[in-house]
Amino acid sequence: MSSAKSDRKFFIFNAIVSTAALSLLAWLLILRDGESLGADLSFMPAMNAVLNSIAALFLASGWIAIVKGKRELHRYLMVGAFAASAIFLVGYLIYHYAHGDTPYPADAANRTLYFTVLISHIILSVPIVPLCLTQFYYARTKQFPKHRKVGRVLLPIWLYVSVTGVVIYFMLNAATGA
């Protein structure tokens, strides 16, 4: 079991890492001028969609595994989902730093639907880093009642964000012809 002191240290660490990640994203997407650096990273949005798809498949499979009592398989699948999401995040940051944003055309069909999905995706992506770190901490310290409690909140959010990331890619791709 974990002591209250080590829990406190973890939550301070979690707050620092999560704040740094969100600050970097905010700077990149809101404050930075978004000017392209000219690097050809056109392959990255498709790669990021694949990574989101892999994360979603691992998440769903991990949930099925734990429901069936396959703890070891569950652990591997959840680590795989985390790895796919982490690699996605790095790729996303690199792409948006080098390329900037790809605007959705003003005259494109489904513009309202696109922004509805995008806004919900962005809002729900915010708690994923701190919740994932908390989830892994509780699993590692064998605090399984807390692990299950966080998982009930995290799984649907993480799954939604992973799936809508792919949907956003296809909608943007269809609208821009990229």
What does this structure look like?
- The chain has one domain: Four Helix Bundle (Hemerythrin (Met), subunit A) (Up-down Bundle).
- It has six helices and no strands.
- It is globular and about 55 Å long.
- The longest helix has 33 residues, at 144-176.
- It has helices spanning 4-31, 44-67, 71-99, 111-125, 128-140, 144-176.
- Helices cover 80% and strands 0% of the residues.
- The protein has 178 residues and is mostly helical.
- The model has no long low-confidence stretch (mean pLDDT 92).
Q: Kindly provide the name of the CATH class.
A: Mainly Alpha
Reported by name, the CATH topology is Four Helix Bundle (Hemerythrin (Met), subunit A)
The counted number of beta strands is 0
Intertermini distance: 51 Å
| CATH architecture designation | Up-down Bundle
Oligomeric status of the shown chains? single chain
Q: If helices are DSSP runs of H or I spanning 4 or more residues, what is the number of helices? A: 6
* Secondary-structure element series: HHHHHH
How many separate domains?
A: 1
Flag low-confidence runs: none
Rounded to the nearest angstrom, the radius of gyration is 18 Å
Principal-axis shape equals globular
Mean pLDDT: 92
Largest sheet: none
Structural class: mainly alpha
Task: Quote the beta fraction.
Answer: under 5%
> Fraction of residues in helices?
over 70%
